[in-house]
Amino acid sequence: MDPYITEWLNLALRFAHVITGIAWIGASFYFVWLDNHLENPPQWKKDKGIMGDLWAVHGGGFYEVAKYRHGPEKMPEILHWFKWEAYTTWLTGFVLLTLMFYVGADIYLIDPSVADLSQGTAIAIGLASIVGGWIVYDILCRTKLAENGLVLGLILMGLITALSYYLTQTFSARGAFMHVGAVIGTIMAGNVFFTIMPSQRALVDSVVKGVEADPSWGAKAKLRSTHNTYLTLPIIFIMISNHYPMVFNHEYNWAVMMGIFVVTALIRQYFVARHKGNENVLVPVAAVILGIALAWAIAPEKAVPVAGQAPLVIEPGKVKTIINDRCTSCHSKANTDELFTAAQGGIILDTLDDMARMAPRIQARAVDAKDMPFMNKTKITDDERAYLGQWIAQGAVIK
Length: 399
Fold this sequence. Notes:
mainly alpha, 2 domains, two-stranded antiparallel sheet, 15 helices, 2 strands, about 65% helix, elongated
């Protein structure tokens, strides 16, 4: 496929994925907030079957929201459902995953330095991890473990950690992260499609028939909704991690991902508890401390001068040669790379002045994170990365 067309498809799908994701996660956040802010209603509302209500002001008007214990006496003609946000987020995400990591498996998914896979094998592993992840999760949630949320949560955390480790040892770092995100997204959308929506249909059906709803449906939906609530921040992190190679390209990237899971889960737990009025300020403090500790732990090592040893004499001409040979095929006013036909990220490295101006980016991506050149297409060596690092450490001189 023409790279220009692929880029436009990528942009359109990513845009649609972000929009629908905002709608889905926004609705999830709102309903968790709403449910936790319901107040004890007056008796006349209780007599009508209302278990909680609240008042809000927004957009120049007042809103009165009421939640029924079972359902209204008569089902309204228009009943709003919240499902397509989840479905369209998953669908756009899966098509985007297919376009980038399956159609472009040789470029984005397969890293020969990690595992020398054929395109078919890599795609099969990716699909198996997504489908298998949902099946294992769903089976566990149907067992007695569902009655003990903490134990089930620990088991699920252990399984996602094992999967993360396996995928980082199989795919490119980006591909591994995106597939963990795909597994989580599939679990969340599957919860909506296979459990939450059927429970809501059963509730509506019971109201229409004038019978009590089966309480097991509500319990199952509550469990899956709780899981979705705590998975929102980790999946948002994975969605944006593609832009931050110091995270996904670290030697222990699977552990970094799990550390972020813990930090984001703590943040989400704090806000859920805050909605209920019983927050613990130590929770966000712990999240901040863990986040800082994680950032410190994965910080790249800096070269320390040896006492009495003269600093390496850097030749700007050699710096220019390295960057011309390894970087300018994708970062030039006239790219020569067959896939990236325009300067990626708007970064142009045609002259030494350009290189010096972009020295911090070169340090972050080519020296520290080592994710550039992309998939090391131009075969930059560790010695060349170190030379660029020394040049930058000495002030990125150009003369």
